[in-house]
Amino acid sequence: MTNIQASVTNFIEQDVSIRRGLSRGFLNTRALAKYIHKNLMLNCSIDAVISALRRYETKEEPKEYIKDRYKLIASAKVSSRTRMVSILFRKDMDVRNSLIKLYNKIDFSKGEVLRILEVSQFIKIVIDEANLKKVEELFTKKDIVETEKKLGEISIIYSDAVKDTPGVFAVLTSELALNGISIRDGVICGSEHIFIINEDDQMKALQALHGISKWGEKN
């Protein structure tokens, strides 16, 4: 039973739509048990899966939290850009020095973009495709780990209340996942969320966000 419980729990944790349905009481337990049993090809009875589902603990959030999130999204300002490129660099002093030079070459007054993301081993930038040549002039091939083209950006600017409203970013990432959209990179800064996605997914992502906004306007 322990293995069945672990398998069912892991399956639910990997599927945001199931977690959402369980927490809100939308799902038929037996139907869900059959679905999980079939997908995991479990060597047990449906009743054993039902028992595991009943043992799975869902955390029901206060309804006001949910409403606040959707209202914030509904009132947010959404903008998008296409023809973006991301470049992943090794993290060393030469790359940092070249980044300073690149920053000075970007004309922000004309709406040009330079996003800089840093983790323990790498630095990534996201820029307009038109400025890719500037990168190639400033960085050597050994500096660049990976270049990814044909990206799009979605920017969402909220009121300052977003900083004290938990789960807003999670709502958006879950909705994009449900629509089969992979987030290449994401940034949270102040009251703005930025998603970097494949350019081909741009319209589908905007439609998904529009659906969330319409729901927020009604509640």
Please tell me about this protein's structure:
- With 219 residues, the protein is an alpha+beta fold.
- The protein contains nine helices and six strands; from the N terminus they run H-H-H-H-H-E-H-E-E-H-E-H-E-E-H.
- It has helices at residues 2-13, 16-23, 29-40, 46-55, 63-75, 93-105, 132-138, 168-178, 202-218, and strands at 77-90, 114-118, 122-128, 144-157, 183-189, 192-198.
- A six-stranded antiparallel β-sheet has the order 2-3-1-4-6-5, covered by helices on one side.
- A hairpin with a 3-residue loop joins strand 2 (114-118) and strand 3.
- Helix 1 crosses helix 4 (46-55), helix 3 (29-40) crosses helix 4 and helix 5 crosses helix 9 (202-218).
- The radius of gyration is 22 Å and the shape is globular.
- The mean pLDDT is 90.
Question: What are the key terms here?
Answer:
219 residues, alpha+beta, six-stranded antiparallel beta sheet, 9 helices, 25% strand, globular
Summary?
The protein is an alpha+beta fold and 219 residues long.
SS content category: alpha+beta
Discrete helix count: 9
Number of strands: 6
> Level of helix content?
40-55%
In this structure, how is the largest beta sheet organized?
6 strands, antiparallel
Give the distance, in angstroms, between the N- and C-terminal Cα atoms: 42 Å
Beta content comes to 15-25%
Coarse morphology: globular
What Rg do the Cα atoms give? 22 Å
> Which stretches are poorly predicted, pLDDT < 50 over at least 5 residues?
none
Mean pLDDT: 90
List the strand order in the largest sheet: 2-3-1-4-6-5
Query: Can you write the helix and strand succession as a string?
Result: HHHHHEHEEHEHEEH
